[in-house]
Amino acid sequence: MASRSIFLQLHVFLILALATTAFSKTLSPYYYEKVCPKALPTIKRIVEAAVYEERRMGASLLRLHFHDCFVQGCDASILLDPTPTIDSEKNAFPNINSIRGFEVIDKIKNKVDKICGRPLVSCADILAIAARDSVVALGGPTWKVPLGRRDSTTASRELANGDLPSPFMDLPALIDNFKRQGLDKRDLVALSGGHTLGFSQCRFFRDRIYNGTNINSRFAKELRNTCPPEGGDSNLAPLDPTPVCFDTAYFSYLIKEKGLLVSDQALFSGGSTDGLVKTYSYNPRVFSADFANSMIKMGNIQVLTGKQGQIRKNCRKVNY
């Protein structure tokens, strides 16, 4: 009888723990600790393997989280495929033929659901964790990711076109864009430092290397070999000289007028963010700390919690 009583108590505790986790209205780094303790280590292993196989994937997974959060909040709307009722954000101008890493997220979702025994970890949380683990895998800082987001049942290509910061924006436009998301100038510069990782397509920097006035002439000339005046839109160039290493070279390049995108160089153009760029360029500890803090702040944008949204079974599709 005693053993049966203990079993019943444990059963009731587990049910209560699952219910609390499923409908919590606040994010917590320990959200899955009791209900699926193997979830986060599993995500980390898959991300590390993906980045090891293709170093560029780290930047791609970081960008997925960023592009998700800036459009109707951190709700995994970026992952939804187009349907008669879903105008997919994948087809927005900043994303089409550019955003990538979806197969890695699919692999994570499938593996985690099997380990947890059911769809328990949201796609939005997977994006947030994968972004952190990608940065760590490439030598960057770590941070405790607040968890408990739920997934949206909608997406908006129109919002993606309007809300994602453009690579052609000047500093006032960038400041305003980030402010609308509840992010300040320090967040703007720190998060832009994510461009210490990854590459950009020719179509996003062509005008700058041929017509820009605040660009190092030798740097522009070198890039013209990669990006001709016409054609080669998808040709890639690194956003900084060490595109698979999390460091401060991105900021050092801005000081030398070697920012690849207009929106990169705008951060060091005689404006109010010049001081931060200089600080980050010679103080990697400050940059890493600010980047981690701003990632946490960004990850809290308009999150769905409690009974809002859903936990998708397939990150590309809404549950029906």
Using brief descriptors, characterize the structure shown.
mainly alpha, 320 residues, single chain, Peroxidase, domain 2, two-stranded antiparallel sheet, Peroxidase, domain 1
Architecture overview:
The protein starts with a helix and ends in a 22-residue tail after the last helix. The chain folds into 2 domains: 25-163, Orthogonal Bundle (Peroxidase, domain 1), CATH 1.10.520; 171-298, Peroxidase, domain 2, CATH 1.10.420. Mean pLDDT is 93; it is low at 5-22. The chain contains 14 helices and 2 strands; from the N terminus they run ααααααααβααβαααα. Strands 1-2 form a two-stranded antiparallel sheet. The chain is 48% helix and 2% strand. It is mostly helical. The chain has helices at residues 2-22, 39-53, 57-69, 102-116, 123-137, 157-163, 171-179, 185-192, 202-211, 217-223, 249-255, 262-265, 274-282, 284-298, and strands at 199-201, 236-238.
CATH topology of the largest domain: Peroxidase, domain 1
Mean pLDDT, as a whole number? 93
Rg, nearest Å: 21 Å
Beta-strand level of the residues, as a percent range?
A: under 5%
Which bin fits the share of residues in helices? 40-55%
Decide which structural class fits the backbone: mainly alpha
- Spatially, the strands of the biggest sheet line up as 1-2
Tally of helical segments: 14
The number of distinct β-strands equals 2
Query: Alpha-carbon distance between the termini?
Result: 43 Å
Morphology call:
globular
- Kindly give the count of domains: 2
